[in-house]
Each structure stands twice: as C-alpha cells, then as structure tokens.
C-alpha cells in the first residue's frame, strides 16, 4: 500500500472515530501488519518513510510516520510482533484527541499561547476516550501508548507528569519516535530541523534525563546519527546523501556520493563501515548548499 493510500486509510479511520461512527480497528491492524512485514524485509525503507518531512495532513500523517519510527526502534530492541502491533497502533491513534481540542489552533503561524498548551496537554486523555468506542479491539498496551506518549521519565511530560516507573515501556519508545518525527517536520510557527540536529537534540534530552538511553541507542541503530535522506559533507571533499543506516556504527552509514562540482553525474555508493578511510565531516542542508572549495 503506497504512502498516500496509507494516509487516506488512517484519515478515514480518524474521521469516523471522532464522529463516533467507527466500525472497528481492522484498518489499523492491516496498516500495522504491513509495516511489520516491511520492517523485516527492509527496515531502512520503513525508516526512510517515517523520517521524510511533511507539511500536510497533520496530525494524521504525523501519527503514521511516528508509528513507523517507533516500530523500527522496537524491532531494534527485540520486541515481538504483538508488542510491535500495540506500539504502532497506539502511535497511530495518539492524536485522535487533537480533533476534540481543535487542530486549527495549532496551525497558526503565531506563538502558541499558554491556553493552547493547556488544551494540548488534554488531548491524550481525549484520544483514549475516543478510542474507548472500540472496546477490547484495542489493547490496553496500545491505549497506554496513546495516553503516555508525551510523558517523560523525569516527570516533565503530560498529561499526568508521570516519572520513569509509571510510564509503560512501549510509551517510552513512542515518546522518542514522536519527538523525532515532530522536529523533522515544518510547522506553521517554525521550520523543520535537519535529521542530524534532531538526533543531537534527542541525545541532549537523554542526557537531561527525559529519555532512556536504551531507546535512544535503538533509535540510532534504526536511523543512524545522520538519518536516511540526510545530505552530508565527506572527508574526501565530496558530498553525499545517506541511503542506508550504519547499524551499530551510528556515524558510518552507506552514502551515495558526488563530486561537488558535478552533482548531475551518477553517484558512487560507499559503505563507510567498510571504507574506513572516509568519514562524514558535517551535515549540510542540501547538495546545492554544499560549499565550493577552490583548487589549490
């Protein structure tokens, strides 16, 4: 199922759920099943989808991308299929409550007010309330993911300000994935951030006690320090785009590379885990933004 079709399926589910006319969880079960199968076939392809910035279909596309990154992290952490299903399901429904608080309030270009933040803090509660119409079709674990995805282990999150021991392990994964996806995407009141800087921010947040190190480590294994699609400058003077992760060697992904003076040519592909004589020196916004060095 293509990405736009997945978004359409999820949007239909969201609309029916918010209106109280939902017919069941089957559409989301299918989406999660397909994503898990794809993860086992080619995890990098799923991560690439989840790490692609988007400007439309908020918050539905946000939930879809978050679920993909969360399941990729979960797979790295050794979760089984049932746990991955609950994790993906919870991520896809976690913003149902945004429709009750009013999505348009968070699509303005102005600064988000304290009133908006209070409304935002209530939306996980509304999400679980809306999901309640599906009864036993949605597991308790999936509901906990939706309810606790914005909690932080230092107690600074919402809606309840829970600490480490009160937050479900799947919700801890979902929280990292949601933050990763959110910061990549542009919003009306801010730009989206480059993947490297999003990962660096998450590392800082881990050091500040908001996220658990094993989850951040699994994110790095799933995305690398330079997430798939990132443009980078290399130590050999060339520029490249990350096309595969480096697994446990976070800073050594597989990159397609160009001479910065000939970006129209066919790229070479280099696996930095194998070619240890070359390394990434810096992230760049785009190939066209690569600095031009003069010959000596």
Q: Name the structural class.
A: alpha+beta
- CATH class category of the largest domain: Mainly Alpha
Radius of gyration: 20 Å
CATH topology of the largest domain: Hypothetical protein af1432
The CATH architecture classification of the largest domain is Orthogonal Bundle
Basic shape: globular
Order of helices and strands: HHHHHHHHHHEEEEE
Going by CATH, what is the homologous superfamily of the largest domain? Hypothetical protein af1432
Strand content: 5-15%
Main beta sheet, described?
5 strands, antiparallel
Question: In terms of per-residue confidence, which ranges show pLDDT below 50 for 5 or more consecutive residues?
Answer: none
Helix tally equals 10
Q: Strand arrangement, largest sheet?
A: 4-3-2-1-5
Helix content: 40-55%
Mean pLDDT: 92
How many distinct domains? Answer: 2
Number of strands: 5
Cα end-to-end separation: 52 Å
Molecular structure report:
Helix 3 (60-76) crosses helix 8 (169-184). The chain has helices at residues 3-19, 26-50, 60-76, 81-93, 98-101, 114-131, 140-148, 169-184, 195-207, 213-223; strands spanning 231-234, 239-244, 254-258, 268-271, 280-284. The protein has 10 helices and 5 strands; from the N terminus they run H-H-H-H-H-H-H-H-H-H-E-E-E-E-E. The model has no long low-confidence stretch (mean pLDDT 92). It is an alpha+beta fold. The N and C termini lie far apart (52 Å). The protein has a 5-stranded antiparallel sheet with strand order 4-3-2-1-5, with no helix packed on it. The radius of gyration is 20 Å and the shape is globular. 41% of the residues are buried.
